[in-house]
């Protein structure tokens, strides 16, 4: 009996709690989106049939979500004063923002050793009309290959802090705002030594950045905005996932993680605060129609993200042209798109045509999308008549001739193509010069229909960078093992954390027609000599003493050395903090070269397909003990683990330091294939650079410039042709 009473009390408390936190609405937000009237969706007979929405249906829905908004703002104690800050008003119209990898070849020229901001921006303007902000990404997926934290990686960018500051100034000259990411999961690399809010605020103030993207965050805490204000450099914080409604007051931007039903849903944050800017993020989808249509309908923007962790998902010509048109209109009517009187899903006359109405003073703009797979032309919308009101088709750049229907309403007719866009302006005066310029531009732009542009997505081809052969030695070279010629099945896969098995992931070998994650190719390997051990600090110092080599980009060069020499006792440890270019310079001096990846794997694996150099079963004594601390202890000596030798007698192949092999390029990215894995393993996140101890796996490091590419976790060994 007592148990039943307790259960009854508990049930009542749960029910009361649910009532206490509930808010009365028939259209409860689904994560970041507010549902639409049920009548807008066509239903089959077995689903109860379908009826056309009435004005009453629309008015009931609109009244409901307006009531929900009013009450919600009270419930969260909303204060929108942050949106009024002059330093953050740019966010109200920052519609198009790519996430840009620092490895993008349009952004930095490693030969000229300079940022090429104009080249990067000119390409985007040419292809899809340019951008309003850029999220510069210098961290994942490379982060964790050594103990540099996310702030250290920004400082390691070409030119250091001064170079980054000038690069940001170059973006500002072109009217483009700059954001960097913040990874709260980065708790396994070097401790920044001060509270995160202050560390981020001070660094962003130092380089002159405008905002922060909160990677994997469902809201950036208020403390970060407070810290930025305290150093006199307010930042726009943009969490990846939607924040709590209360955090809307200080997270002035968000990413839009949307569902895309036929009827566009309303963005919850934009509805609560019309000045809030959303960038829809849908990076892996190859068709951007949904992104652009939902953005245009909601008066928000799009994360025009093509270089996804070095995997190119380029925008098709049709989507690029659609982006150009949407961007041109949104930028021109931006003040309307923050209207507190926004009316989403304003009634239209044709099925599948959806619009938002944006009143501002005595003028009104409509943003319209056609979700149908066919063109629609003719009567599209009816409005209440107003004396002296004129109507302009902003999308086609013409003035419309209004008609009167029997009900006495004004009817407007225009065309909107399949999966296309429309925009109207109602005004009692002639358009101002800005709107006239928009109409002139759009008239020229839309003379060619979107359907005439290709919507076919194509993969970006890659090329392997050739490795020049060497002279064969006249006698067996010291410290090298001869690998005999033989038949070899080169079978390897990339360990990228994202991308699944989509075409374009990983790399493209010369015998393949596209980049892909899984590779298998039978080949005849010619005989070659390979270093028994990786190049050591002592060997590299001989090279420096002989050549006086000093790289043009010397940031982080031999970072663990001091006064021109390695630490005491490190003579037989593998040299690290050397770039691919540094390793090539050493190899050329020694009359050698870096190995092809298949040569490295053949020397490690032999012809029996073994999992590890020593066999198929794991042997912990064959590799260094993993270092899971926040700072690196340094690698083991190259001869410390003789149990790890390969069938040919090659040593220290796995688990001490990664080793440079191939370089691949495409139009936008350079990357290097690393083999063998390393001892350093930062903890606390799956997002750190993955390990590849197995001989069937390789790592892919995205390349920018030596300052960023060098790592305490990467060394190298050389080969020499035997034939």
From TrEMBL:
Gene Ontology terms for molecular function: formylglycine-generating oxidase activity
Gene3D superfamilies: paralog of FGE (formylglycine-generating enzyme)
InterPro entries: CTDL_fold (IPR016187), Sulfatase_Mod_Factor_Kinase (IPR051043), SUMF_dom (IPR005532), SUMF_sf (IPR042095)
Pfam families given in the database record: FGE-sulfatase
Highest taxon in the source lineage: Bacteria
First and last residue of the signal peptide: 1-22
Transmembrane segments: none
Segments forming domain Sulfatase-modifying factor enzyme-like: 478-719
UniProt keyword list: Signal
Name of the protein this chain belongs to: Sulfatase-modifying factor enzyme-like domain-containing protein
């Amino acid at each position: 009996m007592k148990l039943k009473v307790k259960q009854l009390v508990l049930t009542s408390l749960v029910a009361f709690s649910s009532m206490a936190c509930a808010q009365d609405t028939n259209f409860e937000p689904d994560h970041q989106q507010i549902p639409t009237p049920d009548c807008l969706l066509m239903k089959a007979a077995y689903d109860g049939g379908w009826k056309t929405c009435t004005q009453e249906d629309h008015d009931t829905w609109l009244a409901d979500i307006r009531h929900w908004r009013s009450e919600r703002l009270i419930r969260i104690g909303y204060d929108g004063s942050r949106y009024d800050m002059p330093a953050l008003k740019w966010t109200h119209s920052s519609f198009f923002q790519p996430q840009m990898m620092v490895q993008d070849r349009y952004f930095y020229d490693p030969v000229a050793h300079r940022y090429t901001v104009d080249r990067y921006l000119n390409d985007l303007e040419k292809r899809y009309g340019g951008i309003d902000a850029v999220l510069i990404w210098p961290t994942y997926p490379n982060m964790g290959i050594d103990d540099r934290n996310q702030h250290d990686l920004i400082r390691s960018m070409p030119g250091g802090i001064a170079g980054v500051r000038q690069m940001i100034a170059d973006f500002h000259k072109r009217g483009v705002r700059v954001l960097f990411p913040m990874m709260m999961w980065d708790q396994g690399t070097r401790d920044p030594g001060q509270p995160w809010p202050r560390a981020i605020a001070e660094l962003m103030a130092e380089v002159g950045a405008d905002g922060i993207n909160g990677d994997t965050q469902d809201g950036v805490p208020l403390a970060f905005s407070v810290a930025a204000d305290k150093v006199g450099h307010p930042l726009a914080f943009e969490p990846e996932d939607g924040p709590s409604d209360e955090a809307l007051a200080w997270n002035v931007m968000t990413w839009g993680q949307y569902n895309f039903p036929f009827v566009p849903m309303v963005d919850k944050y934009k509805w609560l605060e019309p000045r809030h800017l959303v960038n829809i993020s849908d990076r892996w989808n190859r068709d951007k129609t949904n992104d652009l249509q939902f953005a245009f309908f909601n008066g928000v923007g799009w994360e025009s993200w093509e270089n996804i962790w070095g995997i190119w998902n380029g925008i098709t010509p049709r989507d690029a042209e659609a982006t150009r048109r949407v961007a041109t209109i949104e930028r021109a009517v931006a003040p309307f798109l923050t209207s507190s009187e926004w009316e989403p899903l304003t009634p239209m006359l044709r099925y599948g045509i959806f619009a938002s109405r944006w009143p501002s003073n005595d003028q009104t703009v409509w943003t319209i999308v056609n979700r149908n797979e066919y063109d629609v032309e003719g009567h599209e919308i009816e409005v209440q008549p107003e004396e002296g009101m004129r109507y302009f088709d902003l999308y086609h750049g013409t003035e419309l001739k209004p008609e009167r229907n029997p009900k006495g309403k004004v009817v407007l007719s225009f065309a909107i193509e399949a999966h296309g866009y429309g925009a109207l302006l109602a005004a009692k005066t002639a358009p101002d010069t800005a709107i006239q310029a928009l109409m002139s531009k759009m008239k020229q732009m839309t003379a060619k229909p979107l359907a005439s542009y290709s919507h076919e997505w194509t993969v970006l081809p890659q090329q392997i960078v050739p490795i020049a052969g060497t002279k064969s030695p006249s006698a067996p070279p010291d410290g090298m093992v001869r690998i005999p010629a033989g038949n070899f099945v080169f079978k390897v896969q990339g360990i990228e954390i994202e991308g699944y098995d989509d075409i374009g992931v990983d790399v493209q070998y010369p015998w393949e027609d596209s980049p892909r994650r899984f590779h298998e190719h039978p080949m005849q390997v010619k005989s070659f000599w390979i270093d028994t051990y990786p190049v050591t600090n002592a060997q590299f110092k001989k090279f420096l003493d002989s050549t006086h080599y000093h790289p043009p980009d010397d940031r982080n060069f031999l970072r663990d050395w001091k006064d021109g020499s390695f630490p005491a006792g490190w003579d037989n440890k593998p040299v690290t903090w050397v770039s691919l270019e540094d390793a090539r310079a050493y190899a050329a001096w020694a009359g050698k070269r870096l190995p092809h990846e298949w040569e490295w794997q053949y020397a490690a694996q032999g012809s029996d397909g073994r999992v590890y150099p020593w066999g198929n079963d794991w042997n912990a004594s064959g590799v260094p003990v993993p270092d899971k601390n926040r700072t690196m202890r340094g690698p083991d000596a190259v001869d410390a683990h003789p149990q790890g030798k390969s069938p040919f007698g090659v040593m220290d192949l796995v688990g001490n330091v990664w080793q440079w092999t191939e370089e691949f390029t495409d139009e936008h990215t350079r990357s290097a294939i690393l083999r063998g894995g390393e001892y350093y393993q930062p903890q606390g996140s799956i997002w750190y650079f993955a390990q590849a101890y197995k001989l069937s796996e390789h790592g892919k490091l995205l390349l920018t410039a030596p300052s960023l590419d060098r790592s305490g976790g990467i060394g190298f060994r050389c080969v020499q042709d035997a034939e």
